[in-house]
Each structure stands twice: as structure tokens, then as C-alpha cells.
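Title: Comparing notes on inverse folding

I've been comparing how different people in this forum approach sequence design from structure. To keep things fair, I'm posting one structure and asking everyone to reply with a full sequence. Here's the target:
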């Protein structure tokens, strides 16, 4: 079971396969490319290495992390295989344990945690997560839904923007991401949207 893996000088935590999206580019079914909810490593032999047969407990995640030289990493990232905030409470518990042991804590998310959990979770993130990276993917709700197929339909798009804004307002460095396959006009539109919500835009390389 791959709970954590290295990529560059970062350590990534994998705690669920589940997600509220079914993106056409998702690597979870082994057919797509990735934009971003998560990042993978060429060192991992295929995406099956990240597929969890069961979800690790908080104790198992911390036990795995205790085997690592945490101070040596630039950051620790809650990432895929699925959407980490499907297990929001577990992420918070692990982040609390990590705080003070690592230089930086980031989460890569689809930004739908407030819809998934039916409450505003951003207050619980403040002071724990240094950076939140949100997959924006598109310049409007219709285009987003066409590729991401959220459980929440087009409502997911406004929700992820609101989530990002609330994170930024709470002092969390907020980054919205798109892939470099988007037309330049769309990327510029996404940059304006990100900035209007207190975040910045990161253009990610599409992994085929
Ligand atoms: S948000 Fe990420 S994990 Fe979820 S379906 Fe999309 S690419 Fe896959």
C-alpha cells in the first residue's frame, strides 16, 4: 500500500481513491492524463501503485510518515490518488501531527470540500495548511462540468471558487490550477478569476 511517495523534494500523501469528480483526464482508471488534483511520479511503476485496496487509518498514515526524514522535504502534500478532502477530518488530524515537523503543508484538492461535508471547512484549515492548490480546470461552470462530471453538477464550480476565496481570506496561500492544453484566451480568463478570488493561477503541464 503506497501511503506516501517522493516527487522531487516533496513528500506526497495518498489516503483515498475516492473523489466527487469523475474527470475525463483522471489517471485513476488508467486511461486519462492528469491535470492536477494529484501529481504522480515517473518513479512509481504505473498508476496501479497508488490504488489503495483500503483506506489507511490516521495511525497508519502517521506510522508511515514516521519512517521518513520529514525535515528534509521542502513540503508535504496531501494529494491523490483520489480527492484527499473526501477524508477531511483525517487530513486535519495528520496535518496537526505534521505541524512543526515539516517546512510546509500543501493540499491538492478539487475544492469541493464544503459541498462534500455540508459545512465550511476552511476555518479548520487555517493555521494548518500553508498552501491550497485547487483544480480550476475551466473558465466557467458549464465547461468545468463537461470535463469533470462532479457529483454536484455545475454547482461544483461556484463552490470551488468560494472555497478558494475563503481559504485566501484566512491567510492560506491559494493557487488555482489549469492545464497547458487550454486555449490561451481561456487561461487568461482563468487567471482573472483566480486573482478575483484572492488567489493566483498556476499552469500545469498535462501528463499524458
Ligand atoms: S478531481 Fe482529481 S482525483 Fe478527482 S476525478 Fe478529477 S483528476 Fe481524478
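Reply #1:
Here's my take.
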Amino acid at each position: 500500500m503506497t501511503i506516501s511517495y517522493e516527487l522531487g523534494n516533496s513528500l506526497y500523501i495518498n489516503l483515498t481513491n475516492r473523489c466527487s469528480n469523475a474527470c475525463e483526464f483522471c489517471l485513476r482508471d488508467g486511461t486519462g492524463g492528469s491535470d492536477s488534483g494529484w501529481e504522480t511520479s515517473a518513479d512509481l511503476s504505473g498508476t496501479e501503485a497508488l490504488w489503495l485496496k483500503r483506506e489507511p487509518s490516521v495511525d497508519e498514515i502517521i506510522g508511515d510518515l514516521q519512517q521518513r526524514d520529514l525535515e528534509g522535504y521542502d513540503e508535504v502534500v496531501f494529494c491523490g490518488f483520489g480527492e484527499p478532502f473526501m477524508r477531511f477530518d483525517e487530513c486535519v488530524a495528520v496535518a496537526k501531527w505534521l505541524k512543526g515537523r515539516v517546512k510546509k503543508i500543501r493540499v491538492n484538492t478539487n475544492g469541493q470540500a464544503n459541498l462534500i461535508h455540508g459545512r465550511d471547512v476552511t476555518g479548520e484549515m487555517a493555521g494548518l495548511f500553508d498552501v491550497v492548490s485547487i483544480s480550476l480546470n475551466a473558465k466557467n461552470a458549464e465547461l468545468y462540468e463537461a470535463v469533470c462530471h462532479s457529483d454536484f453538477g455545475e454547482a461544483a464550480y461556484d463552490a470551488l471558487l468560494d472555497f478558494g476565496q475563503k481559504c485566501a481570506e484566512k491567510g492560506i496561500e491559494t493557487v488555482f490550477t489549469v492545464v497547458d492544453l487550454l486555449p490561451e484566451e481561456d487561461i487568461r480568463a482563468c487567471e482573472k478569476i483566480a486573482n478575483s478570488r484572492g488567489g493566483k493561477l498556476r499552469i500545469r503541464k498535462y501528463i499524458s
